[in-house]
Write a structure and sequence with these properties.
There is one protein chain. The protein is of the alpha+beta class. It folds into two domains: 14-98, Immunoglobulin-like (Sandwich); 113-243, no CATH class. The protein is built from nine helices and seven strands. Strands 3-2-5-6 form a four-stranded antiparallel beta sheet, with no helix packed on it.
């Protein structure tokens, strides 16, 4: 009798499902507001600001991740995925982004690519010239730094500052952050960012042009900023490799 009751309780628990916990990532950061749907139960939820979500599921259920800006992702629930938090990675939906219609009542400010490029290049090279000691380089700038600067400039041709009126983190603010805060310091630059002393200012300039919202400097959001800097450091190292003669 007791065995029968125990088996009935187990069947009832399995029928109700278990909780699956996960975090959704994109190429550059954690993804907020992603819709996660259990196709078997038709129950849905959304990821929070940190990309995290919780959803009831059973083994063999199918989860569907959807967003206007990213490719759909399907995932089949396994026993292992119910026993520990899972990570999911979404790919950017480039074609769908191109189909977004801009409100015709908005007149965006014209973006002068040539003026922007010349200004940025002059700013970086002038800083290297005036403060060679910061880059551990003599006054005659080493060729590898020039190549990296040129490569970064070419990348920015494809970028456009957001039109929303927000403020963005500058290279000087990043330098101050890594100088005066407890979390961000020289040790963090070395690991996990793997940024050497002679490259850190170039890295700060690179991050400046990613248009990071200054809200990320707030203490409660600094771990999210760190997550973005780790991703940008990987991109920066790849950029450095392709820029080396």
């Amino acid at each position: 009798m007791y065995k029968l009751v125990f088996l009935m309780l187990c069947v009832g628990c399995c029928a109700q499902g278990q909780t699956l916990n996960g975090v959704v990532y994109t190429a550059n950061s954690r993804a907020a507001n992603i819709t996660v749907t259990n196709l078997n139960t038709q129950k849905s939820t959304h990821t929070d600001a940190e990309g995290a979500f919780t959803l009831t599921a059973q083994v063999h259920d199918t989860l569907l991740f959807t967003s206007v800006f990213y490719q759909k992702l399907k995932f089949t629930v396994t026993p292992n995925s119910l026993s520990q938090p899972q990570s999911f990675h979404l790919m950017e939906q480039l074609n769908q982004l191109e189909e977004v219609t801009v409100d015709q009542t908005v007149t965006p400010k014209a973006f002068n690519k040539d003026a922007y490029t010349n200004s940025l290049q002059a700013s970086i090279l002038e800083d290297i010239k005036n403060h060679p000691e910061l880059y551990n380089r003599p006054a005659g700038t080493a060729p590898d730094l020039i190549l990296i600067v040129g490569k970064i400039i070419s990348l920015f041709h494809k970028r456009k500052p957001a039109e929303k009126e927000v403020t963005y983190i500058t290279a000087k603010q990043l330098d101050s952050l890594f100088t005066h805060t407890e979390l961000f310091n020289v040790s963090l630059l070395k690991n996990p960012l793997h940024i050497t002393t002679d490259r850190k200012y170039i890295f700060y300039y690179y991050c400046e042009k990613q248009y990071l919202n200054t809200e990320l400097l707030q203490p409660e959001k600094q771990f999210l900023l760190l997550d973005k800097l780790v991703n940008y450091s990987k991109q920066f190292h790849e950029l450095s490799k392709t820029s080396t003669p």
